[in-house]
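Residues and backbone
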Amino acid sequence: MLIGITGGAGYIGARLAGILCGEGFRVRVLDDFSSSVPEGLHSIPVDLQEGDAAAPETAARFMQGLDFLFDLSGVAEVTVSEANPGRCLRSNILARHTLVGAVPASLTGWLFPSSVSAVYGKPLFSPLNEWHPPQPSNLYGVSKLAAEQVLLAAYRGRKVPVVILRQSNVYGPSPSLKFDSVIPAFIRQALTAGRLTVHGNGLQVRSFVHIEDLLDVYLKIMKLCLHGGTQASPAVIGRIYNIGGEESSIRELGALVAEAVESRTGKRIRIEIEAGRPGGVPEALNLSLHRIHQALGYRPTRRLRQAVAELVELVAATSTS
């Protein structure tokens, strides 16, 4: 079986590629390395293709013969989207359209991860379920919602076997660990500066899904599609699912990171409160996981306290090696 991963050199993609190769799948990766480096795939036996998924020739070459696609590429940050809107629209929307045009007959499934906070915007009710009306408040959210619609249109019009996951904040170890999300950013700041900075009042509640829980769901969806196609997985294909984990306020999360770093280093960590950033996401994003539990039996298994402590150990060991 040949599995494709766009953005396969990134944080989630590199970890996923290693797991798939370890299970005996052939893996083909497409990445333009605009926000990742090929070193994350070092020693992983993948067919690595460098290029832009929005380019028709590149997309056709990459998609040829795929049995399943993990479509992870695209701009993943609000700040990058605002600074370079053309890149955001090309990477997040046009690339989906171009890949749809290159779908091979062999493809049994296409998993696309979207974004919880960017797509839903300010909650009208809580917990947020998949019926909540999308109301993005920035270009990044608009681009993720448009990408979803491009793929759902391909499902309705051409029966392209798409599954969409609206993911919360992902954390945990990876060969391509990034420090632009809150938990690794807190850890690095605490280890290097002896402090960590909370923006706003710190009462913002977020859902945090561990990368192992997330990839368990990725693999379950892939195997449903590979072994039965659309006939065996009608509850999965063409659907949108929230996926999250343990919920915590940002202030509580900062305290967990400070505690873990203090335990590791023996040094006191200060927590500083600063003004909120413009365009920040709402105070509380409480997710409903009912649909994904009903369809896939999903329940998050990793607890923040233990997983944060493990990540602190990894980052500290990497920094001193």
In short: DSSP finds eleven helices and twelve strands in the chain.
